[in-house]
Amino acid sequence: MDALRRLFPYLRPYRAYALLSLATLTALVFLDLAIPRLIQRIIDDGIRPGNQDVVLSTAALMLLISLLSAGVAIGNNLFSVRTGEGVARDLRADLFDRIQGFSFGNLDRQRTGLLMVRLTSDVNALKHLTQISLRIGTRAPMMMVGSLLLMIQTSPPLALTLLPLLTVTSLLIGIFIFRMEPLFRVVQQKLDRLNTVLQENIAGARLARGFSRADFEIGKFDAANRDFANHSIRVMRFMSTMQPLLALCVNAGMVVVIWAGGLQAIEGTLSLGQVVAFGNYLLTMMTPLIMMTMLSNTWAAGLASARRVGEVFADPPEVQDLPGARALPEDLSPTLEMNNVRFAYASAGGDDVLHDIALAATPGQTLAILGATGAGKTSLINLIPRFYDTRAGTVRVGGEDIRTVTQRSLRKRIAIVPQEALLFSGTIRENIAYGKPDASLAEIEAAARAAQAHDFISALPEGYDSHVEARGANFSGGQKQRLSIARALLPHPDILILDDSTSAVDVETETRIQDAMALSAASRLTVVVAQRISTVLKADQIIVLEHGQIAARGSHRELLASSPIYREIYDSQLGGGLPGVRA
Ligand code: TTP
Ligand code: MG
May I ask the CATH class of domain 336-574? Predict the structure, then answer.
């Protein structure tokens, strides 16, 4: 329930629709409750005394009420749909914003597949909950109270006779809803599991083919699928015993009405019309109740979804601007400095992956970070745009502690070529201009030329307007890397970070990219991450990272002379002339 309360504000913009919906619903209840009274009148004042006028006029009135009722019901549907859709749209938009505002740390925690479920099925479940609440969810209790009152008004003794049965029915329905909610909750969890498996499965379909693990994947899916089905069956089994029981209650009630009411009618203490009206009120009371039990599914699903959507909102962005954070001054020379930096991933058990990092670089320089896989290179460079906060120590850009400036102003100065080149679906032009959407074609071409991408782009039939599929699936690894280098070069960043961004291009092309970039690098600070020593040869400063620690630093020449580790890397990659590796 608490989870639902968080979502009430989403109703506010649509309160007019919600109120209209409730108003039409109330009208509907009144109209529905009028019908048994009219039937009573037809019987008592029309049929029995043989008064045709009353029969005709009452029948006409019933027809009118039925038409009115249909119209009002349509209105109620439309208003509740409007409310539900509006709430769902706003909720999706806010969730999306929230996820856009997530830091890397949040994204490590929240699984992509489940976030997608939050935005789609969960929001849908809440939409249904809203709509159902504005329809049957409010109508049922109103009908119940109204019918009960009218039953008492029709014949208090008969109502009293029915009391034990009504109590039993209410208890049954109470038990039903009480037992149903947890059952449905488990079904929801199983469905979640099924979704996760499915998402991983489809994302990894190619890999599964490559390793002939399709059988294994099918098995994994089967297990989740069966688990979900088994729990659904358990719920349905419960429902299928409960529903006939409830129907039995209704029928038993009818028997009581006809038997006790019939006797009273014979005695003359109750008219035939009253008996029939009473029976009808019993039906108008029970039917919505039984419908409500069928809605416990929607309730359970809605509650579970509200809880999970609430979790996304309750996960604050790990990296946040300090209150009153200033923008990084535009004219500040973009130096880079790290002092005593320690860092750990919250998700990985909290052990430090970077220890005591200290480094400094100035504009115009190239700082290279060399290290084996897992050494912590990516972790280190992710601290520069403040994708993560350090555990200890400071990172300074232009002399400013980056925690004291706004993320936006900091990131505007930095461009990063991530280790895994990621492209969006769209055109090549759009992808390169991602960081500067208003760039001219000339600028885009210049960036592509520097990244050695212009030639292969021009060779495509549609050149810069060629289509890029989701994740850049229609380009090779090296092509994707060059496109993502062009994307980073385009806005002329003050600090350019390349995370092993030329690992998939040949050494010759890499050299050409480096030469082209050097032409525009006079005022830029470049940070190059590499496993391959050929990438870092020309850097002003090379930092050798080992197990998250700086093992050596200096220029290529200095390191070659002074650092055994560097020497070893050099010999293994270039010096020894291993087959397939050329200097
Ligand atoms: P990285 O910083 O990713 O190591 P790397 O970039 O030097 O390696 P590679 O050349 O293969 O790209 O990882 C350092 C450690 O941090 C490693 O033990 C894995 C861990 N780690 C996490 O726990 N979570 C993460 O998101 C990342 C990126 C790394
Ligand atoms: Mg890495």
Answer: alpha beta
